[in-house]
Write a structure and sequence with these properties.
Largest sheet of chain B: 7 strands, mixed
Structural class of chain B: alpha/beta
Main location (chain A): membrane
Oligomer: heterodimer
Shape of chain B: globular
EC number (chain A): 7.1.1.-
Largest sheet of chain A: 3 strands, antiparallel
Shape of chain A: elongated
Helix content of chain B: 25-40%
Strand content of chain B: 15-25%
CATH topology of chain A: Alpha-Beta Plaits
GO molecular function, one term (chain A): quinone binding
Number of domains of chain A: 1
Mean pLDDT of chain A: 86
CATH architecture of the domain at 302-375 and 566-716 in chain B: 3-Layer(aba) Sandwich
Structural class of chain A: alpha+beta
Order of helices and strands of chain A: HEHEEHEEHHH
Distance between the termini of chain A: 77 Å
Family (chain A): Belongs to the complex I 23 kDa subunit family.
Pfam family, one (chain A): Fer4_7
CATH architecture of chain A: 2-Layer Sandwich
Helix content of chain A: 10-25%
Distance between the termini of chain B: 73 Å
Strand order of the largest sheet of chain B: 16-15-26-25-24-17-18
CATH class of the domain at 302-375 and 566-716 in chain B: Alpha Beta
Radius of gyration of chain B: 30 Å
Number of strands of chain B: 35
Chain lengths: 165, 901
């Protein structure tokens, strides 16, 4: 009886001198793995144009029906994206999203990328719908790089994105 | 034709001689990939995608017998090179191989070659998802291209081929389907090839560009995304669309449409296959003209308070209507009420409309808006419509189609394709009219009688038919036939021939052809109707003389304005007869009578359902202003609605169910495609709700008796309940229930059956709603048919004959919000070159038309092919106040050039 007690307290004593595994979130944030699938971002080309061409293949691939794309025609004088089409409306319902990454896989221009942001909480359901303005990266952060997994697969952008590059 | 048995990939298949290998393989369930071949077009073998190995039995030159091998089987001599399956007709004993290495090598090669000049911008392309090039590349093509992307041919994209169609030359594979459709089927040869080699491209040769009423069909049959519709450009991806079956209500053809919806928004309109109505085609009015369902719509009921229309709830609005109708009926009797309904409403709406007004004791019911050019309801086209089993797409040799005074391209565009098809398949198409129309080009015989000579022409045909020995037994019970017969007996054929300006022999030949045909059809339109009922009656007599009236493929098709104009007549929305042509004891007022009576204070309440008379008729404006109470139920806040006391928002054709009766008396069912806009309700529901409210009004009817509307008689939950009552009560409509309509087959073998999607994707949609039912012929009871012999009279004797010209793209309020708005011409008057030369008038000059009742100043449009003495006035255009000068359906006018300054 006494022997077991001492053994247990000994374990406690031993752990007092080890480094704690607890992370003091939110003061401290644990780094995520490189291929972690967090909140989506819509990337841009180096010249600032949107990579998204509004093809809605992400919405078609989405198993949770979380994505809404309403396309429109680019103004030829001031195109938002390469080619004739762009996404006038792009919305992801984060409550529906299951973060499977199929949208990333379906995207012919590597526009949508599941990045490392995982702090997604909302006070109401409407707030869970991320609009294009929220998803699109700022123009100065010209992301030309496909995500690592796509780099490994040596994926090339599809022709509409190629034409104007 | 004898059948031919051949072997395709080891499968024995028997097909009619003359079938090509692609179609034969389809029957065996084997898909041969094609791009340029289309079963509705002549094969050309341009794309080379259908290359197959073909062999025929070896024939011994000495004995002319097949050479047999050791097993007694015929020796097959394979052709040294691959053959195009679409241009090779089958022959007995033929052996076709579609999956050999040689064939696969060729198919891969053709696809790789086609893709060398294709931009592969599928994610951007509107065709992506229903693209035969995508499908065939996945099924037959190489996975990778050896061609460097940067070496591909690049064109500026897109090019506008017309207002409605965009061309992307990079995507075009130059199969020529669009060019051939325009040449062969639409008879608008406005597309062509330009340049050669890598700069080979499709161009429009017409001015204005792509001047065709059928241009939208080229986007359907284009096997790539080269031709796309400006209406659907980047609106949605095709896999997101839900296809809802509706019936087009813009003209009396009743084309089967598919409204492709994304959620509740209309994305595009596509044809729905129905071989007996529109095959796989629709006209541009149907395809582009449905934007009205989401443009300028009324969303709440409005009631006039302090001179202004203010939004109210349905209950309030219905109460106002019921109270006012009750009060006016109590004070002035049922005959102080009147109602006009539009010809685009469904049978259910129209039936309930007349039911309610007649229950309230009013016979003042009519279709349309009246006006000087209004004609009595057309009964001939109903009594003598083609019988059950009619299918114009099957008619060919042995058929005589007589078209009198009609312009099908403008009045009912799809009839142009169908009548042209009869001529192409070997039938006789006789086109008679005062002026040239596009159908003339397809006709086997064009008859151009003198101005106002049409009655003499048809009487001449009748006289010739009687002289040729036709037995008028079927006419004996027709009232008025004896008068017509006596009149014919007193004239000589020579006199009639002289009166219409045709040789006697020609009349005799035409009459003989008509009587001798296996099937005979008569089509007449506005120009014929404007001559007065006597012309249609003479045509009816001719039809009855043939002895085949009312049987399948024999009968009269009357082209009336509006999608359900035949339904309106058959539902009894007319002053003189109830549903099913049953005459009423007491005749009510027609539209013009209502306008007069309202101004005289005899009609005090007017109910307008889907009509806008105030936009066109000064008399109607005065009448609506004079009336005590005006209810308007409509889609939009029209000019008439602005004058109303209560405005009720109605649901459009896309937002409700209903059945529609087309010009051939085919009843078809239309489905609901989306939720009604705002608080709009289907017309039948509005009428039923008014009736229910009327039944609950507490006050009695005074000396005019209590209101006979009972709540039990007006309990309709769904549109099918109304249809069931129509089937029970309207003579001729027995058995026309929704269940019966749904069970009428799929409308053809096109659709998306088995492997067809691989190569005919995006062209048409399978018909899930049935092909509709043709009502049984009414001719068995021919006694009710009455010939009045009435002809259009003129107020005075001015030199020129003014005809209203019906245009497909006119001031129709249903065109609002559509791309067709740009194609609606400005108000003008069409003058023949001869008359213009006499008065020194050039196109664009302003001219003054003067008739007995008034004058009208409009720009002139001088055309070369109009006979002199005739003036055409497109009365449907918004800025043409035709009522100012018209004295009747036809008017005599004088013309003068307006000199400025």
């Amino acid at each position: 009886m006494l022997k077991e007690l001492v053994k247990g307290l000994g374990t406690t004593l031993r752990y007092m001198f080890k480094r704690p595994v607890t992370v003091q979130y939110p003061e401290v944030k644990r780094p995520v793995r490189e291929r972690f699938r967090g909140r989506h971002e819509l990337k841009r080309f180096a010249n600032g144009q949107e990579r998204c061409i509004g093809c809605a293949l992400c919405a078609a691939a989405c198993p949770a029906d979380a994505i809404l794309v309403i396309p429109a025609e680019n103004d030829p004088a001031n195109p938002r994206s390469p080619g004739e089409r762009y996404a006038a409306v792009y919305e992801i319902n984060m409550l529906r999203c299951i973060f499977c990454g199929y949208c990333e896989d379906a995207c012919p221009t590597n526009a949508i990328v599941l990045e490392h942001q995982y702090e997604l909480s909302f006070y109401d359901r409407r707030a869970a719908i991320y609009t294009k303005e929220m998803l699109l990266v700022p123009p100065d952060k010209g992301h030309g790089e496909p995500p690592p997994i796509l780099q490994q697969l040596n994926r090339q952008p599809s022709p509409p994105a190629k034409i104007d590059l | 034709m004898p059948d031919v048995t051949l072997t395709i990939d080891g499968v024995q298949v028997t097909v009619p001689a003359g079938t090509n290998i692609v179609d034969a393989a389809r029957q065996a369930g084997i898909a041969i990939p094609v791009f340029c071949y289309h079963p509705r077009l002549k094969p050309v073998g341009m794309c080379r995608m259908c290359l197959v190995e073909v062999g025929t039995p070896k024939i011994d030159p000495a004995t002319r017998q097949p050479v047999l091998d050791a097993h007694g089987q015929p020796v097959i001599a394979m052709m040294p090179k691959l053959q195009t399956a679409c241009t090779t007709p089958v022959s007995p004993g033929m052996v076709v191989k579609t999956t050999t290495e040689q064939v696969k090598f060729a198919q891969r090669g053709i696809l790789e070659f086609l893709l060398t000049s294709h931009p592969l911008d599928c994610p951007v392309c509107d065709k992506g998802g229903e693209c035969p090039l995508q499908n065939l590349t996945m099924g037959w093509g190489p996975a990778v291209s050896r061609f460097d992307y940067n070496d591909k041919v690049h064109f500026e994209k897109p090019v506008k081929l017309g207002d409605l169609i965009y061309l992307d030359r990079e995507r075009c594979i130059l199969c020529g389907r669009c060019v051939r459709f325009q040449d062969e089927i639409a008879d608008d040869p406005v597309l062509g090839f330009d340049n050669r080699g890598r700069n080979w491209m499709i161009i429009s040769k017409s001015d204005p560009p792509f001047n065709s009423k059928f241009s939208g069909n080229t986007t359907d049959i284009c096997p790539v995304g080269a031709l796309t519709s400006s209406d659907f450009r980047f609106k949605a991806r095709v896999w997101e669309l839900q296809s809802k079956p509706v019936v087009c209500t813009l003209c009396p053809v009743g084309c089967n449409l598919t409204l492709d919806m994304r959620y509740d928004r209309l994305m595009r309109v596509m044809p729905r296959e129905n071989a007996a109505v529109n095959d796989i085609w629709i006209c541009d009015k149907g395809r582009y003209g449905h934007r009205f369902i989401e443009t300028d719509r009324l969303t709440t009921p409005l009631v006039r308070r302090d001179g202004k229309l203010v939004p109210v709830s349905w209950d309030e609005a219905l109460e106002v209507v019921a109270d006012q109708l009750t009060i006016i009926r109590a004070r002035h009797g049922g005959s102080a009420l009147a109602g006009l309904a539009g010809p685009q409403l469904s049978n259910e709406d129209l039936y309930l409309f007349q039911k309610l007004l007649r229950e309230l004791g009013s016979e003042n019911i009519d279709t349309g808006i009246g006006g000087p050019a209004a004609l009595p309801p057309d009964e001939i086209g109903g009594w003598l419509a083609p019988g059950p089993g009619t299918d114009l797409s099957k008619l060919g040799a042995g058929t005589v189609a007589l078209v009198v005074g009609a312009d099908p391209e403008e009045e009912a565009p799809l009839y142009l394709l169908r009548l042209r098809g009869i001529a192409q398949r070997g039938g006789k198409l006789i086109v008679a009219g005062l002026r040239p129309t596009k159908l003339d080009r397809s006709a086997t015989k064009v008859v151009r009688y003198q101005p106002a000579g049409e009655l003499a022409f048809v009487h001449g045909l009748l006289k010739a038919a009687l002289e040729a020995g036709a037995k008028p037994a079927a006419l004996d019970r027709v009232q008025g036939w004896n008068d017509l017969r006596r009149a014919l007996g007193q004239t000589k054929l020579e006199d009639l021939a002289a009166a219409c300006g045709l040789p006697v022999a020609e009349l005799e030949t035409l009459a003989k052809d008509f009587l001798a045909a296996e099937q005979s059809l008569i089509v007449y339109g506005w120009e014929a109707r404007s001559a007065g009922p006597a012309l249609a009656e003479a045509l009816a007599a001719l039809m009855l003389l043939s002895g085949r009236a009312g049987t399948a493929n024999n009968g009269i098709i009357a082209l009336l304005p509006g999608g359900n104009s035949r339904g309106a007549i058959e539902m009894g929305v007319r002053p003189d007869a109830g549903p099913g042509y049953a005459p009423r004891k007491q005749r009510g007022l027609d539209a013009n009578g209502i306008w007069e009576a309202a101004q005289a204070g005899k009609v005090r309440a007017i109910w307008l359902a889907g009509v806008d008379p105030a936009a066109k008729l000064p008399a109607a404006r005065a009448a609506l202003a004079a009336a005590e109470f005006v209810v308007v139920q409509d889609l939009f806040l029209t000019a008439s609605a602005e004058l109303a006391d209560v405005v009720l928002p109605a649901a459009s054709v896309a937002e409700r169910e209903g059945t529609y009766t087309n010009a051939e008396r085919r009843v078809q069912r239309s489905r609901q495609a989306c939720a009604p806009v705002g608080e709009a309700r289907p017309d039948w529901q509005i009428i039923a709700a008014v009736a229910q409210t009327l039944a609950m009004v507490p006050i009695g009817g005074g000396r005019n008796g209590p209101i006979p509307v009972t709540s039990e008689a007006w309990e309709y939950v769904v549109a099918a309940d109304v249809a069931a009552e129509i089937a029970a009560k309207a003579p001729g409509y027995a058995g026309i229930t929704y269940a019966a309509l749904a069970a009428t087959g799929t409308g053809g073998n096109w659709g998306r059956q088995y492997d067809d999607a691989i190569y005919y994707d995006g062209t048409s949609y399978a018909n899930s709603e049935g092909v509709g039912l043709v009502l049984p012929a009414l001719t068995a009871k021919g006694a009710a048919l009455t010939f009045t012999g009435a002809v259009t009279r003129f107020a005075d004797d001015r030199p020129l004959l003014l005809l209203e010209q019906v245009l497909a793209y006119d001031g129709d309020r249903h065109l609002r919000g559509s791309k067709l708005q740009g194609l609606v011409p400005a108000g003008h008057v069409v003058i023949s070159a001869d008359d213009a030369a006499k008065l020194n008038i050039h196109s664009g000059d302003r001219v003054r038309l003067t008739s007995a009742t008034g004058e009208l100043v409009l720009p002139a449009r001088v055309v070369a092919d109009l006979p002199s003495g005739i003036i055409l006035l497109p009365a449907g255009l918004a800025d043409v106040e035709a009522a100012a000068i018209e004295t009747g359906p036809r008017t005599r006018v004088s013309l003068a050039k307006v000199v400025m300054g």
